[in-house]
């Protein structure tokens, strides 16, 4: 079984570099987990806003699930238009 890649979202928040790093990971991966650190957001609502903004930046071929402060992002195999 293949390991799921994990990255952390820290105090700099959702930057262009972070989005590019996530895109690069999805070239070889189908699922990644993003740990949202306390320095990135104050509460669960902020974490949901970060997740929504990340999905807008990545595109329509991605979906997410937020459990606590761990964001699981999945890329669909087929393009969604």
In short:
With 81 residues, this protein is α+β, with helices and mostly antiparallel strands. 31% of the residues lie in helices and 28% in strands. The chain contains 2 helices and 4 strands; from the N terminus they run E-H-E-H-E-E.
What's the structural blueprint in terms of helices and strands?
Blueprint: E1 5-9, H1 16-25, E2 31-36, H2 44-58, E3 62-67, E4 70-75
Helix content: 25-40%
Quaternary structure state of the chains depicted: single chain
Which homologous superfamily in CATH is the superfamily?
YhbY-like
> Which structural class fits the helix and strand makeup?
alpha+beta
CATH topology description = Translation Initiation Factor IF3
- How many domains? The number is 1
Distance between the termini: 31 Å
Which stretches of 5+ consecutive residues score pLDDT under 50? Answer: none
Tell the overall outline.
globular
What integer is the average pLDDT? 91
- Strand-residue fraction? 25-35%
CATH class: Alpha Beta
What does this structure look like?
With 81 residues, the chain is an alpha+beta fold. It has a single domain, classed as YhbY-like (Translation Initiation Factor IF3), CATH 3.30.110. 31% of the residues lie in helices and 28% in strands. The protein contains two helices and four strands, in the order βαβαββ. The chain has helices spanning 16-25, 44-58, and strands spanning 5-9, 31-36, 62-67, 70-75. A four-stranded mixed sheet has the order 1-2-4-3, covered by helices on one side. Strand 3 (62-67) and strand 4 (70-75) form a beta hairpin. The longest helix has 15 residues, at 44-58. The protein is globular, with a radius of gyration of 12 Å. The protein starts with a strand and ends in a 6-residue tail after the last strand.
